[in-house]
Write a structure and sequence with these properties.
With 72 residues, this protein is mostly helical. Helices cover 94% and strands 0% of the residues. It contains 1 helix and no strands. The protein has one helix spanning 4-71. The longest helix has 68 residues, at 4-71. The protein is rod-shaped, with a radius of gyration of 31 Å. The mean pLDDT is 81.
């Protein structure tokens, strides 16, 4: 039925397909990890923005108090 060259070719194709499936699986895992890191980064940035808003609000209220003391 099969001669040795055809058998080797079929065997190599199966091995390449296994490698291809492994590569696709690893790409999928890396994509999920990347998505998780992006979400985590967004959470960290939102926390920093909240801290910056609070600091700005605090600085403005201190500035308003100084202006009121000088003028009043």
């Amino acid at each position: 039925m099969y001669n040795s060259k055809q058998f080797e070719m079929v065997k190599n194709m199966r091995e390449n397909k296994k490698i291809s499936n492994a590569v696709q699986a690893s790409i999928g895992v890396l994509a999920v990890v990347l998505a998780a890191l992006i979400v985590w980064m967004m959470v960290l940035v939102s926390g920093i923005q909240g801290t910056a808003r609070a600091a700005k609000r605090n600085a403005l209220s201190k500035w308003r108090l100084r202006v009121k003391r000088r003028t009043g």
